[in-house]
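Sample entry (149 residues):
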Amino acid sequence: MKINHPISSILYRKNPQVWSVSPEARVFDAIKLMAEKNIGALPVMSGSRLVGIFTERDYTRKIALAGKNSRDTSVFEVATAQCHSVSQHETVEECMRLMTENRVRHLPVMDGNQLIGIVSIGDLVDWTISMQNVAIEQLEQYISGGVQA
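Predicted structure, serialized as tokens:
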């Protein structure tokens, strides 16, 4: 099954609110926001410019395992600065490939230099499953004679 729909089709189905954090924010506050919003990553924004991404993985590896204090450490110190991002025109398949090859779970979606959303591997898997279900239903209808060729 080809998955060549644009990533914007996933963003369209999601809540348009994008939660973010500034580089100066304390890690504790970022983790608290992630827990409140039930999200696994926050884009790190300096004004309107994306400067990185802070993830649960960053917290566990760079704070918890390193013995740092989350109340004393800024997000900038531990966020992933070289984050991968995509345009809204990239396909779901291209995004899945990028996430797999780079072992990332979240991709900021950009329109030029403006952050317009973020997608997770879970979003891509959910979307793929729903598209497969649609294809299966159509095939079942065709086989049972409910749809003309």
